[in-house]
Amino acid sequence: MKNPVSGFSKLTKTEKINWLTTHYFEGNISAKNTLEQYWNTNLSLQKLHDDFIENTISNYYLPLGVAPNFLINDTLYTIPMVIEESSVVAAASNAAKFWLEKGGFKAEIISTTKNGQVHFNYFGNFNDLQTFFNETKPALISGIETLQTNMKKRGGGLIDITLVDSTKKLEGYYQLHCTFETLDAMGANFINSCLETIATIFESKTQEYTPFKISEKTPEIVMSILSNFVPECTVKASVSCPVESLTVGKISGQVFAEKLTRAVAIAKAEPRRAVTHNKGIMNGVDAVILATGNDFRAVEAGVHAFAAKNGNYSSLTHAAIENGIFTFWIELPLALGTVGGLTSLHPLVKFAFDLLQKPNAKELMKIVAVAGLAQNFAALKSLVTTGIQKGHMKMHLMNILNGLNATSTEKEQAIEHYKTNPVSHSNVVTFISNLRDIK
Ligand code: HMG
What we know:
Blueprint lengths: L12 H12 L4 H8 L6 H10 L11 E9 L2 E8 L5 H13 L5 E4 L4 E8 L4 H17 L2 H9 L3 E9 L7 E9 L6 H21 L1 H6 L4 E7 L7 E9 L10 H17 L1 H21 L4 H12 L9 E6 L2 E9 L13 H9 L5 H23 L4 H16 L4 H10 L7 H14 L1
Antiparallel strand pairs: 1-2, 3-8, 4-6, 4-7, 5-6, 8-10, 9-10
This protein binds 3-hydroxy-3-methylglutaryl-coenzyme A (HMG).
3-hydroxy-3-methylglutaryl-coenzyme A binds next to α4, α10, α13 and α14.
């Protein structure tokens, strides 16, 4: 039985580690060494990372890879990707190369509106509430004028506030639904500050409103927060080419296009398949979101809600063959930032933006959507031709070898051997133990 701790947050980093080693590792120094070997010797860089979150004890590395040859709207990109899973970067690169020769990817912004809500209770007459809202709305808007100054100068800010009756979903539940344009900022802080100010003004005005006083039914604020469901902030990415140029190995373009289109149709019809299909898309999306210091949890939550927007969880990608032309596309809700947050703090995020030729938020939305589409194309290409394991295990070989503590000579021999033999964990174990037996 472990003891709880009080005041842990006030301890120094060393004290925190000592507490952990004593309580969870029986004082074993190796746990401490594991944490310390990931500390950065550049103390100011370490301090920067320590300050990103709370109770920091070490750095948790993920690999940063790059996928070259992405032609997007006639601009060539090398896309940075942060991910732990082997074969994802290779798959993205593979799809980029495949489409490079066919005109590349097209991407367009559909909309950029973000939203947030003041959620409140009200059990009185709706007409009183509607009249109150209509009278109070100008004060709600002018009340956030100071907060909006800079955003407005740049061309963004609050778009509108509407009163939403949600009582059919939940008794007495209403919202002030607020829409925003936040330009190159993801906008979470801006939106939340505006919402909280709007809520405060709304609440104070309710106290002065006679019909509420008479009926003794006054709106009561529950909470104010942005929404990560952003179906009005979307981007479309697509690829397209004549079916005959889609030949893959010995498989004709027609057969490949039909199989891939069918695979997408299955993901549209069957949620069990759609979840895995979309997971493959998020391999690409999340990797770029992480590399560019954006909030992948917000994007994940919003994207999956979008995938279920018609009542059934379904494919995020679409495919069609019309008049001999194959088209494959994705529409994604993405609220991304290229300013604020980690974007100017994390040196590798700065590197990622430089590599991407300093995109604005709209350009980043396009790049991320393309990464998702490419990832899905590569996975489907494997699934409907060789099967996924061949390529995946080929890329996973090094992880298996590292897990077996293979020496560099053993690795070289294994890489040579597996150029022509299928990789599986058990046969790599046998291969390495055979090599060791020969010695
Ligand atoms: P391949 O055809 O054997 O590759 O594909 P290749 O050796 O002929 O090389 C062709 C190109 O592929 C290279 O061009 C690279 O662009 C890329 P080059 O650089 O030579 O000019 N490529 C690589 N890039 C970097 N490092 C490498 C590398 N190898 C090839 N080592 C590949 C091999 C793995 C790319 C292919 O089989 C593939 O795309 N497989 C799909 C892998 C995948 O989707 N992985 C994601 C994990 S599985 C998953 O989570 C999702 C899933 O469940 C989703 C779903 O069900 O829909 C599958």
